[in-house]
Design brief:
This protein is α/β, with parallel strands linked by helices. The chain has helices at residues 30-40, 54-60, 79-88, 109-119, 146-149, 159-163; strands at residues 2-8, 24-25, 28-29, 45-50, 67-71, 96-101, 127-131, 134-135, 139-142, 168-171. The termini are far apart.
Amino acid sequence: MISAILLAAGTSSRFKGKNKLLSKYKNKVLFKYAFDELVKSKVNEVIVVLGKNRNEFTKLISKNQKVKVLYNKNYKKGMSTSIKEGIKKIKKPTKGFLICLSDMPKIKASIYNKIIKKFFLNTNRPVVPMYNQKRGNPVCFPYNFRKKLMKLKGDIGAKNILKKIKCTSVNLKTKSILIDFDRRSDFKK
């Protein structure tokens, strides 16, 4: 079993104004790209972590038995708090979990599936997607990494942990794993 933690609790501070995840990109709301592709993927459970504008997000989340929605009341303290809330809700039989960002609309279900497939070749190490020798997202962590990630603090992800350990990489032919949306100009791509 594989879980996914979809982080959607950010404050969009660089976006100025409306929550970027609720803004339209092409034909739909930005958040829906990552959410819909994760639901289509081979992930067994999708844990959506909400913060700001949670009621608006809840309306966008389709009912699906593999989806869990939770609210991070500490979302203003940064990304690490959302990662920790998601980790607390992972079902025990899971072998690993992806930490996914909602502001990466170009990642398709097939990319999530390639990362998962690589993970099952060695479930003892995190799997990091690579494009042209650059690390991207999402990363798939073994279940036993929960304790390390629970020590994160502030508005950071797991990048510093990954720098200190041996990871498995999966080379991909798409730069979608590097593209996140932070500013209004990103929506014109």
